[in-house]
Amino acid sequence: MLQHPQIDPVAIAIGPLKIHWYGLTYLVGFAAGWWLGRLRSRKPWSPLNEEQVGDLLFYMALGVILGGRFGYVVFYNFDAFLADPLWLLRVWEGGMSFHGGLLGVMLAMWWFGRKTSAGFWSIADFVAPLVPVGLGAGRIGNFINGELWGKPTDVSWGMVFRTAPDSLARHPSQIYQFALEGVVLFAILWWFSSRPRPKMAVSGLFLACYGSFRFFTEFFRQPDPQLGYLAFDWLTMGQVLSLPMVIAGAALIVIAYRRNAA
């Protein structure tokens, strides 16, 4: 049995100014996305040049933060928002939804695709391999904050989280999600997109893989206490939101290759 390291959520404090680890993980994700995006922009088939990558990442950052926070409020904790509307602005306390952030990013890509005349799907296929780095960084932030821990377990790597309401060893589900949604997903998408693919295929693979990985890791993660299980004593909100992603991703891959063969 392991003990969760007691890490101060504030990484740097200078007088009243406090910089949280959670915010720094997002900064790392955006910085890595910018660097990798510039590498991809040098490919002859890239829809963007190096200068446009920075502009796109700015709009995507807004989409992630605004969409992720609003998504968490709507999907997971609307009652907390009604009780304390200012809680919506305290992003450093945690509480971001990937699915809400995805909707925000999709809106940003649609707008940028129109602005550059590149089109939504060209932008989406360009961006998809960059996203797992930010997802993985965010899961590390969850781990540092001691939030989104897993279900009780007797495995040797079970971890006691001081933020949990008991002293039970639990799955470090944040690390599971970091490994699958961050490392594995990045490796798959970076390899798959390393050469030209039919339009929508990279985006479809991202949706199918992320949805599958998230659905799987939800079996180890403690459901949000304000929601619990939605059905069958195992179905969570994360799984409900991920299943359509798997279906949509598979459909996009089939459509992409059928169009390419026509």
Automatic annotation (TrEMBL):
Which GO terms of the molecular function aspect are on file?
Answer: phosphatidylglycerol-prolipoprotein diacylglyceryl transferase activity
Q: In which pathway does it act?
A: Protein modification; lipoprotein biosynthesis (diacylglyceryl transfer)
Q: Where are the transmembrane segments?
A: 19-36, 56-76, 96-113, 120-140, 175-193, 200-217, 237-257
Check the record and name the PROSITE patterns matching this protein.
LGT
Bilayer topology reads: Multi-pass membrane protein
Q: Which UniProt keywords are listed?
A: Cell membrane, Glycosyltransferase, Lipoprotein, Membrane, Transferase, Transmembrane, Transmembrane helix
The UniProt entry's coiled-coil ranges are none
| Positions annotated to bind a 1,2-diacyl-sn-glycero-3-phospho-(1'-sn-glycerol) | 139
Q: What class of enzyme is it?
A: transferase
Q: Name one GO cellular component term.
A: plasma membrane
Pfam assignment, any one: LGT
- Homology family: Belongs to the Lgt family.
What is the protein's given name? Phosphatidylglycerol--prolipoprotein diacylglyceryl transferase
Q: Which organism is it from?
A: Marinobacter excellens LAMA 842
Gene for this protein?
lgt
